[in-house]
Amino acid sequence: MVDEIFRSGVLKEEGCGLQNKPNNKPDNKMDKKKIVGFDEIRVLSDDYKSSHKRIVFTNGCFDILHAGHVSYLAMAAALGDILVLGLNSDISVKKIKGDKRPVIGEAHRACVMAALESVDHVVLFDDPDPGQLIEIVCPDILVKGADWPEEQIVGAAFVKENGGKVERIVLEPEISTTKIIERIGRLYHGKT
What we know:
Layout: H1 2-8, H2 38-50, E1 55-60, H3 67-77, E2 82-88, H4 90-97, H5 106-115, E3 121-125, H6 131-137, E4 141-145, H7 156-161, E5 165-169, H8 177-189
């Protein structure tokens, strides 16, 4: 499904207002396409490694972006030079969260995530977990929330076997997409 979206041109950065414009940031990261497919991230990852850039990888659904997500991603980005975000596609989200999710479709979620300064690349994936994508990127640092025990983090063993490390970041308390959805239900429909 994700490959079909890229081939059909449905997911284009131009639709997000993310055309590759000159980068005027003080750190002057290279101009780059932010929303990429598996083939592109493979080449980019190899290029970054050749340039001795430390690649950080994290993943998630990021269904309704909130302050906890922004904080988490900023902390993840601070651990290296390039942050690659594996974004669960709609198919993937449904597999792990159920038929009522995602609330926001993958093209819009990818657009929002790509707009974040902390995120260098967004890669959609259809599988329930990012194992295949992690092996393609082969990050120096794999990041997940501290609510995940390291032995349950998909890709942790692979990353460590390849000289990388795993970092677990403490999440913002009392904020989650599920809690936001429940609050909206209570406020507007008297439901949870």
